[in-house]
Structures are given as structure tokens and as C-alpha cells.
């Protein structure tokens, strides 16, 4: 069992004992998503795989928050924000813009990319380095700008 999945399981038990039903519900949703992936692919997930699921879940919450705010559903916004806060406790610390830009510059130098044509190769390398710690849409824009696009 991955360390991250074990941490989620332990936190679920603590939430049950403390009677924190809201947090318990979120953790159960996360564990269900992890279990579903394990069953679908018939594998035991690594920490990187679990992290990818958590990143996907956090992205879904952010998108839901935007949609609910547009629709004026503030009750649902609060619920999604709480779930997002719980999910983010399991994600690694976010990188600063300066750190991300440095990673991009180092990756461009290492790959020898000269223009936007090599953006895919640069993004693949950068994505591996910033997984779960940065918004990939913003990273993509910065990579494109750094490559002169």
C-alpha cells in the first residue's frame, strides 16, 4: 500500500473516531476513487498514481466552484471549497512562480529545445517535475512564452 493511501486510511479512522462527518465523507470519496482505479486496472497504485488521482479530484472541485459561483449556488460553493481544502492537505506544497520558471529554464537547457516545435518534449519533462505542485495550464503558457511562442 502506498504511503499516501495509508495516510488517507489512517485519517479516515481518526475522522470516524472524532465524529467529523464532513471530513470523513471527503476522505471516503478519495479512497473510493483510488479503489475504483485499482479495481479497473487490477493494480496496486503507487504514491505517484494516488497523487495523480488527488490532483484530478482537486481540479474537479475547482471547476465545480467556478460553475457554482457562476450559477449563484453559494451553498454548493462552500461545500466544494471545504472538499478542496481537505484534498489539498494531501497534496505537496505548491511551487512559487519563480521556482516553476527556473524548472522551465533548466528543462529547456537540458533538452536543448529551440522553439515551440519542441514544446511537447519540454512540457513532458516539466510535468514530471511539477506534478501536483503547479497549475499545468499556467505552466504550459510559461513554457510557450519561454520557447518564443
Automatic annotation (TrEMBL):
Coiled-coil region: none
GO MF term list: carbon-nitrogen ligase activity, with glutamine as amido-N-donor
InterPro entries: Asn/Gln_tRNA_amidoTrase-B-like (IPR003789), GatB_Yqey_C_2 (IPR023168), YqeY/Aim41 (IPR019004), YqeY/Aim41_N (IPR042184)
A family per Pfam: YqeY
Gene3D superfamilies the UniProt entry points to: 1.10.10.410, Uncharacterised protein YqeY/AIM41 PF09424, N-terminal domain
Origin superkingdom: Bacteria
Protein name: GatB/YqeY domain protein
Source species of the chain: Halothiobacillus neapolitanus (strain ATCC 23641 / DSM 15147 / CIP 104769 / NCIMB 8539 / c2) (Thiobacillus neapolitanus)
Amino acid at each position: 500500500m502506498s504511503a499516501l493511501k495509508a495516510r488517507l486510511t489512517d485519517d479516515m479512522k481518526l475522522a470516524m473516531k472524532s465524529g467529523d462527518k464532513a471530513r470523513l465523507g471527503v476522505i471516503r470519496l478519495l479512497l473510493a476513487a483510488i479503489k475504483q482505479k485499482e479495481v479497473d486496472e487490477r493494480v496496486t497504485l503507487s504514491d505517484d498514481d494516488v497523487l495523480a488521482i488527488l490532483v484530478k479530484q482537486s481540479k474537479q472541485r475547482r471547476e465545480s466552484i467556478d460553475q457554482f459561483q457562476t450559477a449563484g449556488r453559494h451553498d454548493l460553493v462552500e461545500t466544494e471549497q471545504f472538499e478542496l481544502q481537505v484534498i489539498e492537505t494531501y497534496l505537496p506544497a505548491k511551487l512559487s512562480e519563480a521556482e516553476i520558471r527556473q524548472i522551465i529554464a533548466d528543462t529547456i537547457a537540458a533538452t536543448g529545445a529551440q522553439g515551440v516545435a519542441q514544446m511537447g518534449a519540454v512540457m513532458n519533462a516539466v510535468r514530471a517535475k511539477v506534478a501536483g505542485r503547479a497549475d499545468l495550464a499556467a505552466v504550459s503558457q510559461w513554457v510557450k512564452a519561454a520557447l518564443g511562442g
